[in-house]
Amino acid sequence: MDFFLAAEGVMEHDTAIATNLKQFLLVLSVSLSVATLPQVVSWFRQIPYTLLLVIVGACLAFVDVRLVNLSPELILTIFLPPLLFEAAWNLKWENLKRDFIPISLYAVFGVVITIAGIAFGLNQWVGLPLSTALLIGASLSATDPVSVVALFRELGASKRLTTLMEGESLFNDGMAVVAFGFLVALSLGLAEPDPPTLVAKLITVVGIGVGVGGLIGFGISYLTQRFDLPLVEQSLTLVSAYGTYLITEDLGGSGVIGVVTTGLILGNFGSRIGMNPRTRLIVTEFWDFLAFFVNSIVFLLIGDQIQYAVLGENLPIIGVTIVAMLATRALSMYGLSALSNVFTQSDINLRQQTVLWWGGLRGSVSIALALSVPTILGERQEVIATVFGVVLFTLLFQGLTTKPLLETLDLLEDQPQQQEYLTLMARRAALKRVLDFLQTAERPGLDPEYSRYQVALLEGQLSKLASEVETLQRQHPSLKEFSQEQLREELMAIEADTYAELTKTGRLKQELAPFLPEILAE
Predict the structure, then answer these.
(1) How far apart are CA 172 and CA 257, in angstroms?
(2) Cβ atoms of 154 and 49 closer than 8 Å
(3) Alpha-carbon distance 270 to 217, whole Å?
């Protein structure tokens, strides 16, 4: 009898796996179909791909087609770690260090201002209990790194603006999650409103995240120095993303901060000392693919979760929350930016502050926090409905109007011109390498006149390319700064690759710290 019960249990388990696999393939098929829409219908190219996924998901929800039910575990444990790691891997430490003070102000005090402002508005204007209003404020206090990073990269925002927004989005989650957990415990009567205790808890959670992330990041960095196996090194980065999150959460720290710390270390340090240029490119392309893959699923499912009837019932609360959120966001961005400009001379101008205000999108992290509200709390459905409504507003209304705002304020980089410049420089580098080979290679029996003729052809083409580059830079003066930045990055990459090569061959006992950034800064 026990045998048959066990067999039946195994069959049910296999059936569940098959069902989940079918659901996953269905979601993936729809996501990839949406990805091809802009190529088939040119009008859709005006809409960022991530927002197009939300719209398609909303259409599916309207006809009551539910693909997969989102849960806090699915978002925070499966989707979030790789997206955080990819964003941190590509975030340059030099850029982050320059704006570390304003980013820290946004990530810490911006969260406090948002929670307080939204809670005050909902409590005074709608009459929601303060505990419920605080939970809604905490859920919406963190700008979502998934939404923000995807949108700003796709739109081609300036690198400084992207760094400010990405940095805030990556770091304020730890603060928001701690505040949310404390407010949930407060609502359940499991905690006292004691600010010193909350501050100590925040320091502990962030400290554990940074500590675990640092240990894993530096550990893998030095480990990959011992071998040159691209697939193994690629796999280690994937294991580090999920492993850091799970270990940090188990130890009571912030998994978000842990993953971001690991990603920053491996992207800025480990990839230089432990990976050759080819491996570094392979790993970067792998994470680009994984981010596209996961983003496609996340944004589609956000739209697919809409409950239109529930949203309609809570429209007044949603409307007040949106007004309060925009007001507190304006206070945070303009006020904290002005404070940073005075004390650190960070020079964040009014146009950049305006985009930072309007571009503070909410997304999967806010939804995960709202879904985490315990069922024992009677206002749980109000919290979830309000957060969903606000998230949709930020993604669709703010997201769709961010590009026109960037264009109006002249903050979009010249993406087509930059791509054309990079193409010309790549062709020039390739032809110079061919020319060097042709001038040094020996070919017995080859007519010298033929070789001279090939050299002349290549030199003529190189001269033509140099002229095209000069013309392009003259027509678009902003390319001058871009080309200087590209050169600085190439010089620092050569320095790092040289140290890594000398370490691997045993001529250096340990990796040297980069020296060139200090020289270039002077």
Answers:
(1) 9
(2) yes
(3) 7
pTM of the entire structure?
0.79
Those residues whose C-beta lies under 8 Å from the C-beta of residue 272, and which sit 6 or more positions away, are 280, 493, 496, 497, 499, 500, 514
Q: Is residue 518 classed exposed, middle or buried when 0-12, 13-18 and 19+ CB atoms within 10 A define those classes?
A: exposed
* pLDDT confidence of residue 20: 67
The distance of Cα 262 from the centroid of its chain, to the nearest Å, equals 14
- Structure tokens of 238? 């994937």
Q: How many CB atoms lie within 10 A of CB 422?
A: 13
Tens of pLDDT along 4-52?
445 555 555 566 677 767 777 777 777 777 777 766 776 666 777 778 8
φ, ψ for residue 252 (rounded to 5)? 90, 15
The label of the residue with tokens 């709608």 reads 126
Mean pLDDT over the full length of the chain: 82
- What residues have CB less than 8 Å from 455, skipping those under 6 apart? 435, 438, 439
Angle between helical axes of 100-121 and 159-187 (0-180°, round to 10): 40
Task: Tell me the CATH architecture of domain 72-408.
Answer: Up-down Bundle (1.20)
Check residue 4 and give its pLDDT: 47
Judge whether 241 and 81 are in contact, CB under 8 Å: yes
Neighbouring-strand partners of residue 157: 412
Query: What distance lies between CA 51 and its chain's CA centroid?
Result: 15
> Is the Cβ–Cβ distance between 58 and 262 less than 8 Å?
no
Say how many C-beta atoms besides its own lie within 10 A of residue 458's C-beta: 17
Domain boundaries, the chain: 2-46, 72-408, 415-521
- The helix, strand and coil proportions of the chain, stated in percent and rounded to the nearest 5, come to 80, 0, 20
